[in-house]
Amino acid sequence: MQFILSEEHEMMRKMVREFALNEVAPTAAERDEEERFDRKIFDKMGELGLTGIPFPEEWGGAGADYLSYVIAVEELSRVCGSTGVTLSAHISLASWPIYKFGTDEQKERFLKPLAEGRKLGAYGLTEPGSGSDAAGMKTTAVRDGDEYILNGNKIFITNGGEAEIYVVFAVTDSALKHKGITAFIVEKGTPGFSIGKKEQKLGIRSSPTTEIIFEECRIPVSQRLGEEGQGFKIAMMTLDGGRNGIAAQAVGIAQGAFDAALDYAKERKQFGQTLSKLQAIQFKLADMATQIEAARLLTYQAAWRESEGIPYGKASAMAKLYAGDIAMQVTTEAVQVFGGYGYTREYPVERMMRDAKITQIYEGTNEIQRVVIANYLLK
Ligand code: CAA
Questions:
Q1: Fewest CB within 10 angstroms: 67, 109, 117, 132, which?
Q2: By the 8 A CB rule, do 319 and 305 touch?
Q3: How far, in Å, is the centroid of ligand 1 from the Cα of 104?
Q4: Which 8-state DSSP code applies to residue 2?
Q5: Do 98 and 237 touch, CB atoms closer than 8 A?
Q6: How confident is the model at residue 201 (pLDDT cuts 50, 70, 90)?
Q7: Which residues on adjacent β-strands are paired with residue 183?
Q8: Where is the Acyl-CoA dehydrogenase/oxidase C-terminal domain (predicted)?
Q9: Is 123 in the pocket of ligand 1 (CB under 6 A)?
């Protein structure tokens, strides 16, 4: 057993770190302030081969593994949590289910442009009345010849409005509860499919979050993903991987806040010495670094399991739970190290603290992660 990254993984980290520092970090505060998504950043990620990291080359991917993918999300999130989740939702939530459950024709038509970064992906599960209780969705899909007619609306869609390809879930047989849910691939521009309200958020403000609306929206059977009734399983299995992407985002945000706090502690003088000489600050830094390292190990372990084909649902839920919680703690402590300055927009730590909060909420709240973990322990 080795706890060092391979040359390939180190190269991935170096490449993404350079890109993040040069092309993402400079506008992170401004995009947050303006709630502005920058498509050019996504396009550049496509040029670098980041948009299809874990998928085979034949489908436009980079043919790398899931560890490379989480390293990329971590490094992006270290400077900008919004950019981290853009990539995570694109790869884990939109591209992955098509890779795993799509026909070759669907992979050619939808996965390839996603993996190559020519199109952006999104995932539609949550509805106004069903968040944690995902199976309680109300959006319907009624078969009509070679088509399904979709009606309903989904909310909190990451990459909403900007994405061209949406993997969505709808009820095809309400009597069957979760066994009556089916997955579909929907393209932006399809008649009857529209983008609703854009959310104004506490954090990850340069990642667009919108409602999506279906009104008599006709989707050909060829765009059904998997079999009728298989949708809930597809949604859950997709989230198994997605949650580890969020764990990586949380690790990255925490690391970014820690880096800033460490630098500040070494520079800022009070009582005739730098903050770093004060044991109160040293203990904070030691706790923060330890928590980040533990969260990173859980995240990398879950990614390694997925790459090796070993079950990873529990590992991924544990990683997301722990990394989300410590990201909130670490970023809050980072603001504390900065004192009054940390509370201002002059420094990035307040943005990181705002960005961290969502990692305890989306892709299953941390309470739901505990439910998932307990189910594994008790079954
Ligand atoms: N893999 C495969 N199958 C799974 C599974 C998994 N990970 N989890 C559940 N299933 C299967 C079960 O085996 C069961 O199948 P059978 O009927 O064949 O036995 C079926 O699904 C139903 O399982 P449960 O009885 O456990 O389902 P439930 O209704 O009680 O819900 C839940 C379980 C864990 C609470 C689930 O609803 C859940 O994960 N909720 C949270 C939803 C969520 O994470 N939403 C986030 C939305 S995405 C997002 O945040 C957007 C973003 O853009 C970033």
A1: 132
A2: no
A3: 26
A4: -
A5: no
A6: very high
A7: 169, 225
A8: 229-376
A9: yes
Tokens of 375: 């189910």
Q: What is the DSSP string of 249-274?
A: HHHHHHHHHHHHHHHHHHH-EETTEE
> How wide is the angle at C-alpha 148 spanned by C-alphas 235 and 364, nearest 5°?
15
Check pocket membership of 134 for ligand 1, CB cut-off 6 A.
Answer: yes
CA of 184 to the centre of ligand 1 (A): 17
201: CA distance to ligand 1 center in Å? Answer: 26
| Structure-block tokens of residue 142 | 């009624």
Q: Whose CA is nearest to atom 48 of ligand 1?
A: 363
Rounded CA separation 176/220 (Å):
23
How many angstroms does the Cα of residue 232 sit away from the middle of ligand 1? 7
Report, as an integer, the average pLDDT of 283-288.
98
What pLDDT sits at residue 1? Answer: 80
- Residue of 87, 233, 357, 369 best suited for mutating to test ligand 1, as the one with most atoms within 8 Å of CB: 233
Give the pLDDT of residue 171.
Answer: 98
Least Cα distance to 134 among 81, 93, 171 occurs for 171
Q: What ipTM goes with this model?
A: 0.98
* 23 annotated active-site: no
Rg (C-alpha) for the chain, rounded Å, is 21
State percent of the chain over pLDDT 70: 100
- Cβ–ligand 1 distance for 364 under 6 Å, the answer yes
pTM of the model: 0.98
Q: Which tens digits make up the pLDDT trace of 102-117?
A: 999 999 999 999 999 9
Q: Is the CB of 246 under 6 A from ligand 1?
A: no
The answer, yes or no, to whether any atom of ligand 1 lies below 6 A from the CB of 99, is no
Residue 240 in contact with ligand 1 by CB distance below 6 A: yes
On whether the CB atoms of residues 190 and 163 are closer than 8 A, the answer is no
Residues 316/338, Cβ–Cβ less than 8 Å: no
